[in-house]
Amino acid sequence: MAKVLVIDDEPSIATLVAEIIEGYGHQVYTAFNGLQGLDSIKQTRFDLIVSDIMMPHVTGHELLQFVRSHAGLAATPFVLMSAVSHLSRLDTDYEPDAFLVKPFDITRIDEVVQAFLPVPSDDESFKKTIHLSLPFKQNYGNSFLARE
């Protein structure tokens, strides 16, 4: 079972990405800003880091620079994500291993998981199904569900 850190200042995005990766049987930690992410990186060794770029206090590029500049962390796969696609082409000293453009297709996360993380063995309770809860209103009005 791999350890993954997901960092995004939008809790709904961080939680969604975390739930998808957990569905593959990996242990996922979330951080809701760059400072929390930096603290987590300093405390725990991760097998993959997925981070938003534009966050207050510490950006995803700064986190990538921190990881790449420390010998013990430099080989950690690092994926950046952003709603602003041109940010993937910024001229920086450190390149991410992959880039996710938001809103992203869940298959892109699947590709990232398969590319950078080992498949957990059966004894690690590997689950390929993804359980997402959707909000439903109590009143279905004239919908098909109301007629059942």
If classified by CATH, what would the architecture be? 3-Layer(aba) Sandwich
How many DSSP H or I helices? 4
CA-to-CA gap between the ends? Answer: 43 Å
Strand content: 15-25%
Q: Mean of residue pLDDT?
A: 82
Annotated CATH topology: Rossmann fold
Order of helices and strands: EHEHEHEEH
The count of strands amounts to 5
Unreliable stretches? 125-131, 136-148
Determine the structural class based on helices, strands and strand pairing: alpha/beta
Strand line-up across the major sheet: 2-1-3-4-5
How many strands, which pairing sense, and closed or not: the largest β-sheet?
5 strands, parallel
Radius of gyration (CA) equals: 17 Å
CATH superfamily annotation: Response regulator
Q: What's the shape? A: globular
Topology:
Elements: E1 3-7, H1 11-22, E2 27-31, H2 34-43, E3 48-52, H3 60-68, E4 78-82, E5 98-101, H4 106-116
Parallel strand pairs: 1-2, 1-3, 3-4, 4-5
Please provide a brief summary of the model:
It contains four helices and five strands, in the order βαβαβαββα.
Overview of this structure, please?
The longest helix has 12 residues, at 11-22. This protein has helices at residues 11-22, 34-43, 60-68, 106-116, and strands at 3-7, 27-31, 48-52, 78-82, 98-101. Helix 2 packs parallel to helix 3 (60-68). It is globular, with a radius of gyration of 17 Å. With 148 residues, the protein is α/β, with parallel strands linked by helices. Mean pLDDT is 82; it is low at 125-131 and 136-148. It has one domain (3-147): 3-Layer(aba) Sandwich (Rossmann fold), CATH 3.40.50.2300. 28% of the residues lie in helices and 16% in strands.
